[in-house]
Amino acid sequence: MLLLSFLVVCHGGSLSKSFYQHSCPQADDIIKSKTLQHVSADPNLPAKLLLMHFHDCFVRFNKPLWEVPTGRRDGTVSKSIDALTNIPSPFFNFTQLKQNFARKGLTVSDMVVLSGAHTIGIAHCNSFSNRLYNFTGKGDQDPSLDSTYAAFLKTKCKSLSDTTTTVAMDPGSSGNFDSHYYPNLLQKKGLLQSDAALLIEDQSKGIVQELVNQNNFFTEFAKSMERMGAIEVLTGSAGEIRIKCSVVNS
Ligand code: HEM
Ligand SMILES: *[C@@H]1O[C@H](CO)[C@@H](O)[C@H](O)[C@H]1NC(C)=O
Ligand SMILES: *[C@@H]1O[C@H](CO)[C@@H](O)[C@H](O)[C@H]1NC(C)=O
């Protein structure tokens, strides 16, 4: 429910909470009840929605306009190459991650907080199996990965060529949106290299330690989500309203 309310806020209301007040007074209720209906049919949906929101926010939209804070509109450009160049790679080191978030006006703190989204959902073996089998190109394992956890992961991802198997991102608690990601990370059980990278610097590691506290995490996550949701947003007459969500109007 917490997660859903973020999604509704970010998609419908963060620019102006009353944007649909006159044009479609039931909009928020419709979105909420439809989302709930779909989520109860598919518990994996919140993870997909959250990931989609992250990717939407990081990918370039055409001509951002900030001065008319009304409703969020769709981009008139949709290129897969934009996703590849904007979305951070799981193989990024701390410096690269920090730069990637900074380019979008987000801080190291936002980055650590938002990475907590990895408390739910799954990852494919090829997003991390280099850490198990060929970390530095010498057939070695990532020393910053807990060895018991690595042994477990090897039973799931049997080789570097496995691109289809998936594993839970936050083992033991991957169905729950909670702060479990952080104690897990501190035990060297962060799944992705980009998760482990958050422990590299003292400042960032300090933030990880603070977010073990679930109240802190929820409060900070909501704030950082709002900031992420405001990245290069299209409002007023910028962009368009797509007839079909996945494609630019012709
Ligand atoms: C810090 C930089 C980040 C990197 C490098 C990263 C990378 C990844 C990767 C590689 C996966 C697994 C994809 C797969 O193998 O199928 C993943 C999953 C996921 N990520 Fe991130 N991510 C980052 C930050 C975020 C943020 C900021 C959010 C949202 C606020 C987010 C939400 C998710 C979710 C919910 C999943 C699970 C999706 C599912 O279950 O299908 N990630 N991420
Ligand atoms: C991070 O990766 C970049 C690009 O591969 C590299 O130039 C840089 O030296 C790396 N930084 C650290 C601290 O390892
Ligand atoms: C491990 O990485 C090295 C260097 O990139 C490469 O030559 C080797 O083929 C890789 N091993 C496997 C099993 O892919």
UniProtKB/TrEMBL annotation:
Record GO terms (molecular function): heme binding; lactoperoxidase activity; metal ion binding
Cofactor note (record): Binds 1 heme b (iron(II)-protoporphyrin IX) group per subunit.
Source species of the chain: Trifolium subterraneum (Subterranean clover)
Domain Plant heme peroxidase family profile per the UniProt entry, residue ranges: 47-249
SUPFAM superfamilies xref list: Heme-dependent peroxidases
InterPro entries: Haem_peroxidase, Haem_peroxidase_sf, Peroxidase_pln, Peroxidases_heam-ligand_BS, Secretory_peroxidase
Family listed: Belongs to the peroxidase family. Ascorbate peroxidase subfamily.
Residues noted as binding substrate in the record, renumbered to the chain: 88
Name of the molecule in the record: peroxidase
Catalyzed chemical reaction(s): 2 a phenolic donor + H2O2 = 2 a phenolic radical donor + 2 H2O
Positions of disulphide bridges: 125-157
GO biological process, one term: hydrogen peroxide catabolic process
Name of a matching Pfam family: peroxidase
CDD domains in UniProt: secretory_peroxidase
